[in-house]
Each structure stands twice: as C-alpha cells, then as structure tokens.
C-alpha cells in the first residue's frame, strides 16, 4: 500500500513517469531506480525522528572549523535536542519539537522562537523525497566509514544549473546522516559538517537535555510568529522564477540597527535569503557580487530599496531570485 | 653638473662614473640645480617622445624637483670597482638586449596568461567575481536557515532580534 502511494506521488512529481507505472503493472526499471533514490532520502529524513543519539560534530567552511556537542532524544512523538558549541563564544540551542531556545551567556539572553521551519543537522532534508527528486538525482558513490560507523555515500546531483550538488554519508544500519558536503560548480567542497563521534540508540537521560546555564535573571526575548493573515499583507510579491525554490519564511528583523525584511527560499535542501531595506547612500547602486566561504552574495538597488541576496547557490540563482521580488504598492 | 653626467645617470650607465660617491653627489645636486633639473626633465621628455610618440607627463614646474628628490631618497646598490671594470663591456651589450628582452618577456607572459585563462574558461564555468564582503549580520541571519551549517554564532544574539518569526507556505 505504501509502495503504491509512493509510486503515485513519484509519478506526479517526476515528469515522464506518469505512464510508466499504471496501477497493477510491474514497476519499470526507471520507476525502480526512482524508488531506490526516494528510499535513500526517506531514510535520511526519517532517522532523526526515530532515533536517540548523542555525539560531537564538526562544521568546516574554508579555514573556519567549529565543533559542537549534540544530544537528541525522541520520545512518544516528541523531539528534544540540545546543541552546545565547544569553541568560540559559548552558546547553546535547546529544542523541543518546533520551539527553539537560543541561550547566550555572553549577553545573558534567551531567545525563544516558538514556531520554526528550521532544520538542524543531521535533519537537513526539508522537503519530502518526491519534491527533492524533481531537482536532484541521487546516485550511490560507494561506502565509507564515518565516526566509526559504516555508511553509504550518496551524491545529490542537481538536474539544472540553479543549485549546487551535495554528498551525503548515510549510516547503513539506520540511515542517519553522519556527514554532508556542499560542492560548487567546479566540484570543490565549499562546506561540510560531519560527526567525529556518535552513539546511536539507548536511553538519553533528561538531565543531558537541560541547559548547563543557570538562566535566572537573564533577559528573555519571545519571537512572536507572524499570523497567516499578516503574512498575506506583505508589501512584497515573489514571482516564482527559479524551479523548486519556494518561500518558506518571511520576517522583519533588526540587522545592525536597520529594520530589514528577510525572505527565505528553499528547494528542500539549499536555502536563499533575500534581505530588503530602504536604499540609502553607501548602498550598492549597481549589481555587486561577493562571497564568503560557501555563501555567495548579490546586492542591487530596486526602486528605492536595497536588495541583498545570500545563499550557498550559484550567483545566477541569486540574481534570478533577487529579480523575482517585486514591490506591491497595492498591499500594506 | 654637465649634461653628459645627467645622460649617464639617466641611462643607468653607472660604470662610466668613477665612483659611487660621485653618483651620490650628482643625485644630491640634482634637486638643488635648476638647470640640471630642467635638463633632467627635458631628457626624459625626449626619451618618452622617441619611445612612445607622446609625452607621458606634463610640463609641471616642480615635477623635476619632486622627481629628483624622490630619486635621491631611493636606495642605490653599486657594483664593486673590479666588477664594474669586468662587466662594463658586457653590460653595454646586455643593456641593448634588455631593451628588447623586457618588452618581449612581458608580451610572452601576457600571451601565456591569456592562453591559460581562455583554456580554464573553457574547462570550467567562470567563477563569480568577488567585489564585496558579505556583511556579517546578514550572513548570520541567513545561516540560521542553512541546513548544512548547524551552528550559529553567538554574535547574532547581539545584532539580531526578530520582530516577526517565520511562516511556512
């Protein structure tokens, strides 16, 4: 039954397959191949929702290297997680389902985000497999060992020029993602995250999920979610012009003393942010391109607004998405 | 300071000058001797016109003085007297070759550079030119949504405050 449901979804998602698997027919080789690809992704996506684990992971971008400790527990459909940075300025991220608390002992602040669309490593796949397979092809590269566990190495190759490719190391036993690399157009690794040690399974003590900081007397900032009706009243219209990228988030924030609107787009894996603020002297008039580590940036002036577009995607994608944003004076 | 000494100085034919002390003296005199400075400037103008067909600098009244002063402040390395004597003839011949070899070398290097760049352009898509630094607050605000980067800088707590949180479509 599940296979049939999956086939229907896949056939609707992937062009050219709608005639390949009529109900009752034996799945063709192409469908089988697609099912295998979907299976890989589904395992990676489901593992963090089914497994307890704790370990240390490393994030590398260019010469920057940062490590963190993660404790992750799933119990009766609830997800609890605690991430503690091990270098640089100390901070913690404590999560319960869709509510995230950011704790900073430096500023003695607890930032509470009650409803988030964020995904945190190793739960990197934001969209279901049938959506991802529209834009990426999954290929098994071989096997490898990461943090002492046997893994299958997969390559998510983009089907167009709008996104980068990824290598994923998925634990053979349960599918948990143990390592991910982002590769640019030249097939160079531009950022990666990997577990250096991990223990999967077993009981996780509730104490291990509690923050190590005594937050008594700390400032708490509650981030109010934008209601659906408020979201619809935005000044900004986004024309869909890059296949797969949809707006997943919109917020107004204060960046370096300036009120800025942030729109976040995702294709289920890659994310792009468009920052919109009133144009002022000193901001780029002509299109300006920059990059830092894996993240590319494109700035341009649009009417009386400055648009800054960021993401670990090709510059052409940033340009397209930047041009998709249009001011809608009829709304408020 | 006569014109022949200025000519020797300009052509870098130091070996025809008896000693380094004399060169030093010439350089010291140049900023203080209006006639010598004017001659220095005229010789350079003639040289430019002969080489390129046009003057590369304007007849600015104090140019020669400033140029001479800057030149006099530069460190100069001298050959030993023995080496000067030995290399004198060779240097003259080499100088003639250098006049041809330098532009030829530059041209060859430029051609090689262009060839390599053209070849690489064919092999790989041209990377985006880097013109600007990514502003840190924007980068940190974006990385909150990056699935590959699981860590967020503590700095964002100081610079970012969200007024309205995310909404999924």
Overview of the molecule:
The complex is a heterodimer of chains A (332) and B (169). Chain A has 332 residues and is α+β, with helices and mostly antiparallel strands. Chain A is 18% helix and 45% strand. Chain A has helices at residues 2-13, 29-50, 129-135, 206-209, 228-232, 315-324, and strands at 53-61, 64-75, 78-85, 92-96, 99-104, 109-113, 136-146, 149-158, 165-171, 177-183, 189-200, 219-222, 236-238, 246-255, 258-266, 271-278, 288-292, 295-302, 305-311, 325-327. In chain A, the strands form three sheets. Chain A has a twelve-stranded mixed β-sheet with strand order 7-8-9-10-11-1-2-3-4-5-6-12. In chain A, strands 14-15-16-19-18-17 form a six-stranded antiparallel β-sheet, covered by helices on one side. In chain A, strand 3 (78-85) and strand 4 (92-96) form a beta hairpin. Residues 225-233 of chain A have low confidence and may be disordered. Chain B is mainly α and 169 residues long. Chain B is 60% helix and 2% strand. Chain B has seven helices and one strand, in the order H-H-H-H-H-H-H-E. Chain B has helices spanning 3-10, 20-29, 34-52, 63-72, 81-123, 136-143, 156-159, and one strand at 160-162. Chain B is elongated. Chain B starts with a helix and ends in a 7-residue tail after the last strand. Mean pLDDT of chain B is 58; it is low at 74-85, 116-130 and 153-169. At the A-B interface, strand 1, strand 2, strand 6, strand 11 and helix 5 of A face helix 6, helix 7 and strand 1 of B.
């Amino acid at each position: 039954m599940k296979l049939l449901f999956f086939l229907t979804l896949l056939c609707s998602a992937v062009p050219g397959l709608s005639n390949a698997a009529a109900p009752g027919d034996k799945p063709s080789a192409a469908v089988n191949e697609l099912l295998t690809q979907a299976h890989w992704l589904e395992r990676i996506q489901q593992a963090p929702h089914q497994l307890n684990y704790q370990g240390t992971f490393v994030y590398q971008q260019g010469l920057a290297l940062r490590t963190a400790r993660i404790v992750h527990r799933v119990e009766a459909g609830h997800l609890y997680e605690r991430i503690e940075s091990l270098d640089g300025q100390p901070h913690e991220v404590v999560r319960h389902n869709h509510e995230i608390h950011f704790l900073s002992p430096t500023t003695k602040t607890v930032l509470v985000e009650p409803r988030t669309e964020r995904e945190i490593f190793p739960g990197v796949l934001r969209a279901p497999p049938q959506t991802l397979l529209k834009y990426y092809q999954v290929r098994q590269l071989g096997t490898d060992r990461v943090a002492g566990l046997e893994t299958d190495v997969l390559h998510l190759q983009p089907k167009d020029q709008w996104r980068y490719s990824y290598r994923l190391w998925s634990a053979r036993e349960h599918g948990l993602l143990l390592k991910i690399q982002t590769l640019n157009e030249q097939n160079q690794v531009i950022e990666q995250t990997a577990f250096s040690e991990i223990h999967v399974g077993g009981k996780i003590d509730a104490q291990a999920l509690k923050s190590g900081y005594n937050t008594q007397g700390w400032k708490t900032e509650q981030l109010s979610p934008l209601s659906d009706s408020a979201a619809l009243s935005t000044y900004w219209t986004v024309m869909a012009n890059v296949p797969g990228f949809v707006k997943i988030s919109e917020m107004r924030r204060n960046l370096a003393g300036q009120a800025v609107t942030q729109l976040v787009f995702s294709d289920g894996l890659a994310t792009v942010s468009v920052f919109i603020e009133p144009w002022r002297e000193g901001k780029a008039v002509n299109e300006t391109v920059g990059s830092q580590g894996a993240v590319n940036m494109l700035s341009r002036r649009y009417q009386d607004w400055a648009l800054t577009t960021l993401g670990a995607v090709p510059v052409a994608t940033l340009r397209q998405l930047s041009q998709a944003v249009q001011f809608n004076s009829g709304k408020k | 300071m006569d014109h022949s000494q200025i000519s020797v100085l300009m052509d870098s034919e130091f070996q025809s000058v008896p000693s380094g002390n004399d060169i030093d003296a010439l350089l010291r005199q140049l900023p203080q001797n209006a006639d010598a400075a004017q001659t220095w400037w005229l010789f350079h103008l003639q040289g430019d016109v002969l080489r390129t067909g046009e003057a590369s600098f304007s007849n600015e009244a104090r140019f020669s003085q400033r140029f001479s002063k800057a030149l006099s402040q530069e460190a100069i390395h001298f050959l030993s007297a023995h080496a000067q004597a030995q290399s004198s003839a060779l240097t003259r011949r080499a100088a003639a070759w250098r006049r041809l070899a330098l532009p030829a070398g530059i041209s060859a290097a430029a051609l090689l550079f262009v060839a390599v760049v053209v070849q690489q352009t064919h092999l790989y898509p041209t990377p985006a030119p880097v013109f600007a630094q990514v502003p840190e607050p924007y980068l940190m605000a974006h990385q909150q949504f990056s699935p590959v980067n699981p860590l967020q800088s503590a700095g964002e707590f100081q610079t970012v405050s969200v007024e309205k949180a995310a909404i999924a479509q």
